[in-house]
Design goal:
The chain is mainly beta. It contains six helices and 30 strands. A hairpin with a 3-residue loop joins β11 and β12. The chain starts with a helix and ends with a strand.
Amino acid sequence: MDKGKNRTLIPKIICLLLSFGLWLYVSNVENPQRTHELTNVPVELINEDSLADSKFAIVNKQQFTVDLELEGPSSEVLKVKKEDFKIVVDMSAYALKTGENFIPVQIINAPQKINIKNNGLLGIKVNLEELEKKEFTIKSKVKIKYKENIYEKEQVISPKVVTATGGKSSIERISEAVLVGEEKDVDKDKQSDYEIKFLDAYGNEVNNIEADNKTAKLSISVTNGKVIPINLKTTGNISKGFVLTGYELSKNSINILGDNQNLSKVQAVNTEPVDISSLQEDSELEVKLSLPEGITAQDGEETIKVKFKVQKEESVTENISCNVQYSNLNENLSLDNQNITTNVTLTGIKSALDKISAKNINVTLDLSNLKDEGTFEYTPKATLVDGTDVTISEIGSVKVVVKKKN
């Protein structure tokens, strides 16, 4: 069985060798002509500066290419590469216009034994638009991370303005010119150059733009700092009939900057005193911070906003139990119930009522009209002592039990 396999394998090998030999003979001895298409061969644009002189710019600039129809000996055609060709377009050699332009190419270099069959038809389509210039103020989008208790004092960009040149459609897309990059663990003043990029309104980079400066210098100044609380200081008293129910600060703490010696002396920062005596409704005031000498606010803002919550006090009533002091009782009579009390009803604003107690109320009863013993009902008199914004609205009656003395 193995011998049968060998008998069929040997003829196959012989046929393969004969075929390879025939191919070598045809390729190297006969070397017949053949055609081949070489696609996407790069085209170089020369004298491109002439476009700017003519106030033109290429729309959506890209790598231009052409497809070559080649003819030549098989041995030459099979080894040809794109790099063997140098194809150019002279942008200064033709009268151009806005819109689409068909510009013929020039074959500068090509393999000697290769014929380019479509040479006379080769060209590229270049879409042109008006060239525009526009200035942009450069902004920093450099991501900066500072070490602990190190804060940014100032950022300076130099130059501040960049001039962008490009096609009208590209220039109109530009929303801002920015510096991009990243700095970590910054703990001292630093200067670095960053690439200028042009971004559209969505943050996408706009290409095909020439700038008078490719980079700009970002100078970062730092200082020491810490976070401290803010204390509100007030003067005066809220107007009568109103009550201050609370207040809110736009921020309760602030990052302050300065040298370590000055920072160590500051544990909190006060506002300048606010006179609240004229407040009669909810109010929002801008209040200046009293920053010590040598101390600045990190954000440069030395004021905060304070929302005062003020309510008008409503009249309320309150009952107070008071001792009744009697007088002018006939010397032949005596009181059986000497510890007489009554309820006195007061009306006024709550803040005023809170200051009143039984000590501020004198309740008296004149018994000069009593001539005989018995039980009698009277309404005593009451007067306020040191009571403002409060009135006596009602006095409870009392029963007096009178007996003759033995």
